[in-house]
Each structure stands twice: as C-alpha cells, then as structure tokens.
Amino acid sequence: MFAVLYYIFILPLIYLISIMPFWVLYGISDILFVLMYYIFGYRKKVVMRNLQNAFPEKSPQELKTLERKFFRYLCDTILETIKLITISPKELLKRAALDESVVSVFAQYKKENKSAIAVLGHAGNWEWASNAFSIVVEQPMHGVYHQLSNKQFDKLLYDMRSRFGNVLIEMKNVVREMIKNKDTVCVNGFIADQTPAPEGAYWTKFLNQKTPVFYGTEKIARKLNQPVVFISVINVKRGYYRLEAEVLCENPKDTKDGEITEMHTRKLEKDILTQPENWLWSHKRWKHSGKYELLKEKGLVN
Q1: For residues 185 and 195, which has the higher predicted lDDT (pLDDT)?
Q2: pLDDT tens, 96-125?
Q3: To bridge 98 with a disulfide, which of 102, 200, 263, 286 should be the other Cys (CB 3.0-4.6 Å)?
C-alpha cells in the first residue's frame, strides 16, 4: 500500500519541489523550520542536550540561539538534498565549489596513479559535496552508505547520491569491496561521524565527551596504504558551500594504532567549532557514551 501511495503522491511531490527555483525552495525551508522547531519540536531535547554537553561554557541564551540556527540549517539541508534530483552540474558546482586545494591534491594522486581516502563529516551539505566532488575529480568516488529499510526511499537516495557518478558500497560490504578494488585508482569516501557499536570502536574525547569513532577509515587506509585527505564543507552563505582539502596522512602504514582516527576526529572537531550551527546536532551521536567505563573495565575498548 505504501508503495502505491509513494509513486502516486509522494514521489511526484518530491520532484515538484526539486524543480522549483531556489527562492521558492528556501521559502519552503522557512515554513518547514516553523513546523519543525515551533510546532513539532523535532528532536529539540536531543539537540539541546548535545549542545549543552559540547559547549558547557555557553549561556542558555547562546545555546538557544545556536539551536535555532541549527534547525534553520537542517531545514535548508533537507530541501537542498531534494534539489539534487534535478539540479544541473553547472548549478551544483556554482553552489558547492571545489577549492583549488581539493582539485590539485586529487589531480596529483591521479598523476601518480594512486588511490586515496577522502573523509568528511555531517557538516555543511555533505550530499552536495560528494556529488560536486564526483563531477570535478577524475577518479571515481567509492562512497560508503547505509541501506534504508524502506525500499522506495532507499532507491531515491541511492539514485541522488550516484547521479553524477559516485559508486556506492553498502556498509557491510565495504572492507571486501575496497580490497577487491585495490588496483583501481579511485577515491574511497568515508563519513567520519557515524555512530558505531561501542564494543571495538575507537574511543576519544570529542566535543568534551567520550565518543566512539569508527575504526573503518583507519583500517582501510593502513591496509591499503592510501593517503587520507579530510574534506571540509564550509558554509559561505545560504545555499553556497566551499570544499577545502587537507592531507592528514601520506603513508598510513607508518602510523600508530589510533593515530589516523585521532587526526580526522580532531579536524572535524575544529571545523565544527568554527561553524557550530552547520553540523548534525540532531544525530544521537553520544547514545553509547555511558557504556565507556564498563567496557573499559572489561578490556573491550582502548
């Protein structure tokens, strides 16, 4: 029944929103903000708790202002992601521009016939960033994704994320697929701030809290000895972003355990502190934090 409703009503509405000009799109975002923030209060408790823990030095008024700015950013990101269905490559690159640091570093790796790992977080508009990256950078981007339980929305997101050439690899297959493709010159893309299972994760202090971090990026980097590059997605103004690159590690095989994970975690934290409203505070990033001491006693974490 849902599939019928989806194809008759939901999908046409999504496409209709996608073809609208940006001034209409952001008008819809403003309405969505009022509904989400003032009417439904979507995850407001989660957001405020995260902000309070991350910024204990901020006053209640400062936190409230930051909370509102975040929800405006979140609504914009939702509408901008829908726009990916129909946006032209030219318009996307105008609004998610790659800095010369991104273009030059990956052009050099291509020249050296060397694959690399690109790491970014849920900051700025990561969906626009990954698609803009695949338009400009010559190497194919192999990105990790989590399959959605709803088949219709999973296909929609899959099509949006792969529209400009990204090759998507389901999370459970990532190690096998990336090792299988080790002789193909490509860019392996990872999102650095997912929430892993607490057992076996790398634990570090992130935004003033004990936080589990996926070891996946580091494990692949060290196993394949692929350089690790962090991609910052900076919000220039409403509807416009800039991608910048910083090489974190050229020879992962020479690093110590946890070193690469610390590198990309610290870089992400720095970006968040620079533009705190432009990170996904509604994500339940610290839902496992209370388990750290128990896991440490059992010797299950670092």
Answers
A1: 185
A2: 999 999 999 999 999 999 999 999 999 999
A3: 102
Distance of CA 228 to the CA centre of its chain: 16
Cβ pair 249, 264 in contact under 8 A: no
What 28-34 contacts at long range (C-beta under 8 Å, 24+ apart), as own/partner pairs, is 28/79, 29/72, 29/75, 29/76, 29/78, 29/79, 30/75, 32/75, 32/78, 32/79, 33/71, 33/72, 33/75
Q: Cα(18)–Cα(14) distance, rounded to whole angstroms? A: 6
Residue 297 has pLDDT above 70, yes or no: no
What is the enclosing helix (H) or strand (E) of 18?
A: helix 11-18
> Amino acid letter at 126?
W
CB 105 within 8 A of CB 175: no
Per-residue pLDDT averaged across 171-190, rounded?
85
Residue 155 has pLDDT above 70, yes or no: yes
∠ at Cα 189 (186, 194), nearest 5°?
A: 165
Please list the residues that pair with 206 across neighbouring strands: 209
- Write the DSSP string, 163-227: TTSPEEEEGGGHHHHHHHTTTS--EEEEETT----STT-EEEEETTEEEEE-SHHHHHHHHHT--
* CA 302 – CA 298 distance, rounded (Å): 11
Q: How big is the chain by its Cα radius of gyration, in Å?
A: 20
Q: How far is 216 from 197, CA to CA, in rounded Å?
A: 12
